[in-house]
């Protein structure tokens, strides 16, 4: 009975993690009015001098895009930001690995190819539909959650 439940759990995790998704690509279009002089333009540059020098390299390099990519994928089926679900929490991963280029490449490779043995018996399903650049952005976000 116990083995049946474990096998059923593993199968459901694999099915959830390998479901194919279609990516929606949208293009941003801006409608141009007849009188463009009435439209105020605002700079996207943050001019708050109190924030100068406070960003971390990993967080500023990939956290916003990485978080968005994760939210659009099936990652949250098995992982959450804090604490273990089926797989480790992102905070656990961030605390285990430093934000080096080698670790970012290695973890991005694990997202794409899958893996097992580092966090327990349940393997992580492969995600071959995620391109390496997106996987790296996801890893950068995860590593930005370091707590210790």
Write a concise synopsis of the structure shown.
The longest helix has 16 residues. It is built from 5 helices and no strands.
Q: What report would you give on this structure?
A:
The protein has 148 residues and is an all-alpha fold. Helices cover 43% and strands 0% of the residues. The protein has five helices and no strands. Helix 2 crosses helix 5 and helix 4 packs across helix 5. The protein is globular. About 30% of the residues have low confidence.
Straight-line N-to-C gap:
40 Å
Shape: globular
Strand content: under 5%
What is the average of the pLDDT values? 73
- What are the secondary-structure elements, in order, as H or E? HHHHH
Derived from helix and strand composition plus strand pairing, the structural class reads mainly alpha
Number of helices: 5
Share in helix: 40-55%
Low-confidence segments, given as residue ranges, are 17-61
Keywords:
mainly alpha, globular
Topology:
Elements: H1 2-17, H2 57-71, H3 90-96, H4 101-113, H5 132-143
């Amino acid at each position: 009975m116990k083995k049946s439940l474990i096998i059923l759990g593993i199968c459901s995790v694999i099915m959830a993690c390998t479901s194919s998704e279609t990516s929606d690509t949208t293009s941003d279009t801006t409608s141009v009015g007849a009188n463009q002089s009435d439209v105020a333009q605002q700079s996207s540059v943050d001019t708050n001098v109190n924030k100068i020098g406070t960003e971390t390299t990993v967080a500023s390099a990939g956290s916003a895009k990485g978080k968005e990519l994760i939210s659009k994928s099936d990652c949250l089926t098995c992982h959450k930001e804090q604490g273990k679900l089926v797989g480790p929490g992102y905070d656990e991963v961030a605390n285990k690995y430093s934000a080096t280029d080698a670790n970012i490449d290695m973890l991005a490779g694990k997202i794409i190819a899958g893996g097992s043995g580092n966090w327990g018996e349940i393997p992580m399903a492969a995600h071959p539909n995620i391109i390496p650049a997106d996987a790296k952005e996801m890893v950068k976000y995860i590593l930005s959650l370091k707590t210790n």
